[in-house]
Specification:
homodimer; 385 residues; alpha/beta
Chain lengths: 385, 385
């Protein structure tokens, strides 16, 4: 195990002049703090004895039921064989999936580049990660390449994918690919771990159902999160998957943290009960769309001679690559010298000793003025590269 | 991995007439809910943007510093080579210790019986648990037996111990044994994981310093908890150990849950800053001492012809054994038929397919009337055993 590149970057000096386009944080402007404060006061005055006491590992039952119903009703996620458990963020859903679905030496196929936190969780169980190439058209994992990998690689147990607004590339897997992914998983008898924290943060482009919505046989573990639509500091997410798998995850979770913070599980449940989460998400999306548009316009204005990118339809990240296919890390270093933090693409590679022409830019946390200034500074920084 | 016996017991029917002496819960009467509510309101109105955002994996810096200073100043815990990190309960401190200190097939020595949650965490990393016999005088792990085990067992990496108010036996390791434990660990070059969630819950008996207080060379990982002195539902504890070890634990924690609930880390810090935690613990102890005394008196009155026990000087549990050395599970089953939940001693054994004459009774959660009635019912239930 080793510390992640992002983690070290986020430890950068606390300089007020620094602009970070490196984080993966939601904007605090989206946190429904006033509503949460009111709910919290009610819990403290009327339900503190239960909310501050030990709870069950599976999670607070009303939150589990309410979340499962919302996912099922709105997105056709989850069938009779599935069970939803509350986890300490989607990160824990991923880690527990790795724990119960893989053994040392097994192979996990994944997009390359992919989410560092998931790669780290998988690596911590000594599995071998094998990257599947992505298509150049922004449609994510190449299904022909996946089929070839499944055909030639022994001991594949799991396919890890972020099909919608992938981190770091922003790619979206088309519905036809999702269907083929499921067919291939069935044919080669491997499980799929679908990491889907961003899908409701859609700014344009058509809605494509999660892979889990197509899962008729219990082949998909779905990792979801409240971090991006409510708040991340409360560390609440969930896993939705076939009950024999989630029950093993519960046993793993029990010895890991017993249960997730119960007070905020109750708070979250009441928020979903008393407020309009869909309306809240629409407001978040308006804010994030403006930031994404600002970033795209700034890049167009200042960096179109150096970088190529595809406009992401949702999520938190814009992935750009050097037109000269040089090292993205060189861009990130130059930007850092001008007090703009970015994440070099190599940090997301399965083999992060390789080079990548990519740089990941975050547009969810900085405000539009910071985004414009950040991109302007990067352009000045890389002028001679 | 398999579900724990306690977990299944705690899922018992929600019958209002049921008396549970099976839990390991603090009394909700001890939760400083009013103080927490006031602090929470302040965080929501003035610091929500930081408190609800992602935080660093090591934990909220002011809480880390304040906790380390309190432990150091009051209990001489922690030296210059040590680092304190916040974990999602002491359970996570134990789990992360297992993760970073053991490899598959390594041996961990522990008290037998011992805390189920810790045994489960260790088992989940496929280590081999080897129980060290305890002394009959309530002084915990037998140091001669430990030395013999260290001498004859290959691949021992870790000694797991709850030296103070052990769970389930309530035993307390004398200071001389603690010193010898450290010497043996040094001699055989193994680490010690000291699980110490109860030590401040002292009702009588002399104060004995934690093993960690004697650790001059960084051989002890100390797992501590806010669960028993503030509240368990917030899932906050800590690990204090040599920095190279805690840094690896941080890498493991990062891919497990990123960080613990930040809002309650801040809340906990302010509670420690603004209120008198030592005075609060004194009040908890007055409440728990009364409950312990009630249980001891009830047992004396109703069950002294069937059971033997040693009065615990602190903690949450009273361990009793059948005078006829019959199976404790038979007592627990009979008690359950009379609607009193207890935990049969075998549940705590390293090899839980063995029998134990013991039964663990909890006195922290039930009130004195429930304790009296519970013991009375057990006596009626086991009359013909």
């Amino acid at each position: 195990m080793k510390p992640s590149a992002i983690r070290e970057i986020l430890k950068a000096p606390n300089d007020p002049d620094l602009i970070s386009l490196a984080a993966g944080n939601p904007s605090p402007e989206t946190f429904p703090a006033q509503e949460m404060a009111e709910i919290a006061a009610g819990i403290f005055s009327r339900n503190y004895a239960a909310a501050l006491q030990y709870g069950v590992t599976e999670g607070y039952e009303p939150l589990r039921v309410r979340t499962a119903r919302r996912l099922s009703g709105k997105y056709a996620l989850g069938r009779e064989f599935d069970q939803l458990i509350i986890t300490s963020g989607a990160q824990q859903a991923i880690e527990l999936s790795a724990k119960v679905l893989t053994n040392e030496g097994d192979v996990v196929l994944c997009e390359d580049p992919s989410f560092i936190g998931a790669l780290g969780a998988l690596r911590s169980y000594n599995v071998r990660l094998a990257g599947v190439p992505s298509r150049d058209d922004g449609s994510g994992m190449d299904m022909d390449a996946l089929e070839a990998a499944l055909k030639t690689t022994p001991n594949v147990k799991l396919i890890y994918t972020i099909p919608t607004y992938q981190n770091p590339t922003g790619s979206v897997m088309p519905e036809a690919s999702r269907k083929r992914l499921l067919e291939l998983a069935k044919q080669y008898d491997v499980m799929i771990l679908e990491d889907n924290p961003y899908f409701e943060l859609r700014y344009d482009g058509e809605y494509i159902p999660p892979v889990k919505a197509l899962d008729t046989e219990g082949r998909v573990i779905y990792a979801g999160s409240f971090s991006k639509i409510i708040a991340p500091g409360i560390r609440l997410g969930f896993a939705l998957g076939p009950e024999p798998v989630t029950q093993k995850m519960v046993v793993g979770k029990q010895v890991s943290d017993v249960h997730s913070n119960l007070f905020f599980q109750i708070l979250c449940d009441r928020y979903l009960e008393q407020y309009d989460i869909d309306g809240h998400i629409e407001k978040c999306n308006a804010l994030y769309k403006l930031r994404r548009d600002t970033m795209v316009e700034s890049l167009q204005r200042h960096l179109s001679d150096k970088l190529r990118w595809r406009v992401p339809h949702g999520g938190f990240f814009l992935w750009c690559e050097r037109l000269d296919n040089g090292d993205g890390a060189e861009f990130s270093a130059a930007a850092k010298a001008h007090k703009v933090m970015t994440v070099p693409g190599a940090a997301f590679l399965v083999d992060d000793t390789q080079k990548s022409p990519g740089v990941r830019l975050n547009f969810s946390l900085p405000n539009p003025a910071q985004i414009e200034e950040g991109v302007r500074r990067i352009a000045a920084a890389v002028e001679r590269i």
